[in-house]
Design goal:
Oligomer: single chain
Order of helices and strands: HHEEEEEEHHEHEHHEE
Mean pLDDT: 81
Helix content: 10-25%
Strand content: 15-25%
Largest sheet: 8 strands, antiparallel
Strand order of the largest sheet: 7-2-5-6-8-1-9-10
Shape: elongated
Structural class: alpha+beta
Distance between the termini: 63 Å
Number of helices: 7
Low-confidence stretches: 303-317
Number of strands: 10
Length: about 325
């Protein structure tokens, strides 16, 4: 039998939704409850029309012809791409930032450091409520920390200060306690900044200090001296709770920034940003790059189209392989 119209199942479902009187339970955001009475929301006549394809207004017309072939998507050629998804590790000095830092002069209400980032847990010690000392290892996101700022020129990369000696057994959050943060700012960080930056810059900062989430540009020329002053100051009596402060460097969501069709192309994209903003000589050996290899269909993406069944399409992206490697091999 020949049919003049061939509908795929997805298109037929869209047509039913447009005509009304059809409840798409698969697209519902919540589970139905008994009192919703789903069965009673569609009349018997409408159910018959949906399942037979015969329009009640034109009973003599032939039924809709569903053609499975109409839903068939021809095979699409694929291509391999490489990208650097994220970077993470430790730095010896703030001088790692060649172009300076966008400094966060206040603490975030909620830390943006949520995972161990594949790094080995760090050793630390604390005294429990009974006065007994403990030596343990904890992942970086469990260690009290402060998001210091972002690298100028590569602002997908953040610098964090980790404070192992501020770890407490009963902590509910790895964010610094307000009192610790006040002491850190007033007696350690701000004196170091005021000591090494020109008075005209300091005057500008004082207009912004304390503002919520305000970032202040710290020029790169004296960052090494600032860090040296910090390390010197925290050895003083009353400030040794900050001893062992460590700089964590993290950059994530770099995929689209570094994606290329070849390894060399990926490295060129990455080096264009990295070489201008990062001084490798201040990086620890514990520094890693998360490299991804992805096989994707070529041509325009079909994900995100308008329509009832668009969300049911599989992603255009095929299986992805990620490998965490030391930065030194790149």
């Amino acid at each position: 039998m020949q049919h003049t119209e061939h509908l795929g199942l997805g298109e037929y479902m869209e047509r039913l939704q447009a005509d009304g009187g059809y409840l798409d339970v698969l697209s519902a955001a919540t589970m139905a409850k008994r009192e919703d009475n789903l069965a009673g929301q569609t009349s018997a006549d409408r159910k018959r029309e949906i399942y037979t394809g015969i329009n009640l207004a034109m009973p003599d017309a032939g039924p809709v012809h569903l053609c499975l072939a109409a839903d068939h998507e021809p095979e699409r050629p694929t291509a391999v791409t490489f990208d650097i998804d994220s970077i993470v590790g430790f730095a010896y000095s703030l001088a790692v930032a060649k172009l300076g830092v966008r400094w966060n002069s206040t603490q975030m209400p909620v830390s943006d450091l949520h995972l161990s980032l594949h790094l080995d847990p760090l050793p630390l010690q604390y005294v429990d409520s009974d006065g007994r000392p403990h030596h343990v290892r904890r992942p970086v996101h469990k260690i009290p920390h402060y998001t210091f700022g972002r690298l100028v020129g590569f602002e997908d990369i953040s610098l964090y200060f980790l404070f192992p000696r501020l770890y407490r057994e009963d902590q509910q959050s790895s964010r610094l306690r307000d009192e610790d943060f006040r002491i850190w700012m007033d007696q350690v960080l701000l004196p170091a900044l005021y000591r090494h930056y020109d008075g005209s810059l300091v005057h500008e900062w004082t207009q912004s200090l304390g503002s919520s989430f305000y970032s202040i540009f710290l020029p790169p020329n004296t960052l090494a001296l600032v860090w040296a002053s910090i390390l010197e100051t925290i050895e003083n009596t009353g400030l040794q709770q900050f001893s062992g402060v460590t700089i964590l460097v993290q950059g994530k969501n770099l995929k689209t920034l570094t994606k290329a069709n070849t390894w060399d192309g990926m490295m060129q994209e990455f080096a264009q940003h990295w070489g201008n903003t990062i001084d490798d000589s201040h990086l620890s050996d514990q520094f890693y790059v998360d490299i991804g290899k992805e096989t994707c269909p070529t041509g325009p993406s079909r994900v995100g189209g308008v329509g009832l069944h668009a969300s049911r399409y599989r992603s255009d992206t095929e299986p992805r392989i990620n490998l965490l490697v030391p930065q030194t091999i790149l």
